[in-house]
Amino acid sequence: MSSPQCRGRHITNLMLLGATALAVALPVRARAQGADQEPKLPTTAAEFDWGLNLYASSVLTPVSGYGALVRPDSIEPAIKDKTHAWITQLQASPAKGIQLDPTGELYVADGQDAVAKQQFAERLATKGLSADDRAYTLLLATRVFAHPENAERITTALGYMAQLDAMPNSVIMFKFKGRVSLGEAYYVTGDGPAVTTQLTKALAMTPQIPFERRKPVFVQSPIAMLADVLSGDPSGHARIDSIGKALLPLATATPEQIASDSAYFWYSRFFTEEFKGTLQLTAHLGQPAPVVTAMHWYNTDAPTVVSAAAPGAHSKTLGDGVIRLMEFGEYSCYPCRMALPGMERIRKASPSNVQVMYVTQTEGSWGATAYAPDDEAQHLQHYYVERKHYGMPIALWSGPKDSTIDYGFLPRENPSAKAYPIQATPTFVVIDGKGIVRHISIGYSREVEKLLSSDIQYLVGEAKRQASAAPASESPSARTAMAGR
């Protein structure tokens, strides 16, 4: 929320975990109207593979009459059927060269793992294959087989990762991404120790990564996921603090680099600010949650505490016995909007002591037209409440437009987003009934929705145990038990 643009992962690495049952049929290339009939070109595996990722991000859906609240498991069978039909179509012309990579991914999506391995093996055996191309294939194979709930598949993924590790450090970024992908895979299945192993190995590569390629280390950093896993460990905060302190200097280029090109100065400032913000965000884990401040409160009563942040602003304090799942997002962020149906599913399935909330803000305009804050808020209310019929409480910050140094105007920063702070959207925060932050994650996928649901279920059970005078071993500090972590 540090900019009006969505800075979250549009299609996160987590979404690649859900790609094993996804693909799309793309039409053959259209010919110009009135032109002579041209031979139709077959759809390539790469084009199908791009469609696969569109389905993974829910941009497209194969289900006729798809509604906002259709459960993800209702979609998977239809995608599975389409995937098989498209693979059958591709079999008429066996893949060669670079097309072997997407073909292998599609075979994994269809459950034909042995054939997928053959595609990757053929690609890796290509004479004269460059180091980068080889590393790409090994990374792709690692990602598509990274399913910890399937012992054979995760063993296969680890085997490909071992081959990638054996390559020279000229492909260090592929190694880094492979370890992060494995960490994400273990994260959504609740294997905390494995997440810790994979992500610490990834972050340990940072000194060997060329400075100009370190963005994935510091921007939307995997350290947020690692901190979430370690937050229940008594030494977790100290470990994250130690890792953060070791990495922070690496976000700044050397004086020689800065002297050679001013771009290194701006990279340094950007990496440093983003990483510090992530560390500040994760520092809230296990601590009291900051208040939520807004001007407009939809589907809920406005709080009575007046805020000095702007005229008409009120703040809601937490820790009132209600377990909360909050999504921080904004209208211009597609993944933020994509996550809302899932938030509604969780809301409808949760007991009365759980509140699912959307924390958002105005952005200064609606479409191409600039609007006053309250007028823009009316458009947002119409979209979220009247058009989409979301029943969750929505806290909308509509700050006044403040002048900028270049004689322009920008909406005043959302104090809720600043307090956490929110570095990328969507960001999810789970808070227990005592107002303690228990979970933070960035980016949305169907797997994340399942993870958030399990976190809520754990806290509901924890609250019941505490009400029944549960033993000390089941106290709120037992964070590692949450969602199996």
Strand content: 5-15%
Low-confidence stretches: 7-35, 63-72, 472-485
Separation of the first and last Cα atoms: 28 Å
What would the average pLDDT be, to the nearest integer?
Answer: 86
How many separate helices?
Answer: 18
Q: State the helicity in percent bands.
A: 40-55%
Shape: globular
SS content category: alpha+beta
Q: Going across the major beta sheet, what is the strand order?
A: 2-9-6-5-12-13
Radius of gyration (CA) equals 24 Å
Count the E strands.
13
Largest sheet: 6 strands, mixed
Overall description:
By secondary structure, this protein is α+β, with helices and mostly antiparallel strands. Helix content is 46%, strand content 10%. The chain is built from 18 helices and 13 strands. It has helices at residues 13-17, 45-56, 72-90, 100-109, 113-124, 131-144, 151-165, 172-188, 192-203, 215-218, 223-230, 236-247, 255-260, 263-282, 334-349, 373-387, 415-419, 446-467; strands at residues 292-294, 296-298, 305-306, 314-316, 323-328, 354-361, 365-366, 369-370, 394-397, 401-403, 409-411, 427-431, 437-442. The strands form four sheets. The chain has a six-stranded mixed beta sheet. Strands 1-4-3 form a three-stranded antiparallel beta sheet, with no helix packed on it. A hairpin with a 2-residue loop joins strand 7 and strand 8 (369-370). Helix 6 (131-144) packs antiparallel against helix 7. The protein is globular. It starts with 12 loop residues before the first helix and ends in an 18-residue tail after the last helix.
